[in-house]
Amino acid sequence: MTSPALAHQTPFGRMYSRRIGGTPEVPSITTVIAQADAGMGGWIGHMAATAAVQDERLAAAVGDPAKLRAVARQASGAADAYRDAAAARGDRVHHYCEQVALAALGRPHEAPAARAALEGHGEGAFAARFDQWWETYRVVPLAAEVTVWNHSVGYAGTLDLVAEIGGRLCLIDYKTKGTDREGRVKALDPKVVMQLAAGCKAEEMLVDPAAGTWKPWPYGTDPMLLGVAIGETEVQPMMVDPAVLPAYWSRFWALRQVWASGLKVQEAGVPLRPVGPPPPPAG
Q1: Residues 14, 33 contacting (CB under 8 angstroms)
Q2: How many CB atoms lie within 10 A of CB 254?
Q3: Could you tell me the CATH number of the domain that includes residue 235?
Q4: Is residue 193 part of a domain?
Q5: Phi first, then psi: what are they for 235, rounded to 5°?
Q6: pTM of the predicted protein model
Q7: What average pLDDT does this structure show over 149-169?
């Protein structure tokens, strides 16, 4: 997904303004969710160890501290390199999905170029599986890449798609996923439920980013929420169970308070100051 027009990278995470060039005012949905500790230490260590073991220089480096340090330096960045590559792939897939929706809406689009970009990276299967899903589920798009705002809690975000499927209004969030050992698309992270729960609490949607024009959210408060895992072998849509929404919304609300408290701490100033010894006793 390309960076939304009103999004800003700040020391406090991604934030949104009300118009292009405006002051960032509220955190993004993803920034709020990121306040939860992801606990990625084990995965980072695994990626580094795997990169070191697979490095062709390792055998020649044994017994040579300088060469071993070079292998270690490169291995230490393996997780970051994997994350960045996955993010770039996700951006390409999201861009293609958006362009397909724009084409269906009769709006200007770059679907052929977006598909060519995927094929140029050996990722054409993602587009092929997405097209199959789109046709099989007879998706009728209503709006793509919709920027929304919630004043009551204080956050904003961008929804991948608002559509009708089988006569039901749906809010959809795409996730580009890898393939497991059985050849199936990998499962969605349950955090997508928080993301969709926040999206369905939208109070406004953006009309014109340059003018800063917004309108009341027109799609009601009871849509079907779908997380759609897009893989190379299949696309798997997963519906959020309405029974869990209150719990996930409560979690999101609490994380929004965590973000606000972190902002206050960072703006509070220097937390610790040196203290000198007391003066010597009189006399």
Answers
A1: no
A2: 12
A3: 3.90.320
A4: yes
A5: -120, 130
A6: 0.82
A7: 97
What sign does the CA torsion over 96, 98, 101, 105 have? Answer: negative
**Domain-embedded: residue 169:** yes
Is 277 inside any structural domain? Answer: no
Average pLDDT over the chain, rounded to an integer: 89
- 26 falls within a domain: yes
pLDDT band per the 50, 70, 90 thresholds, residue 3: low
Residue 20 half-sphere exposure toward CB, CA atoms < 13 A:
8
CB 150 within 8 Å of CB 156? yes
Question: Above 90 in pLDDT, residue 47?
Answer: no
Task: Report the residue count for the chain.
Answer: 283
- pLDDT of 190 over the 90 cut: yes
212: left (phi over 0), alpha (psi -120 to 50) or beta: left
The whole domain housing 126 covers 7-37+111-267
With bands split at pLDDT 50, 70 and 90, how would you rate the model's confidence at 43? very low
Question: Which residues lie closer than 8 Å to 154 by C-beta, 6 or more apart?
Answer: 26, 27, 256, 260
Per-residue pLDDT, averaged over 2-9, amounts to: 82
- Torsional sign, CA 138, 170, 84, 113: positive
Residue 145: CB atoms within 10 A of its CB come to 20
Residue type, 157: G
Structurally, the chain folds into a number of domains equal to 1
Mean pLDDT across 214-231: 95
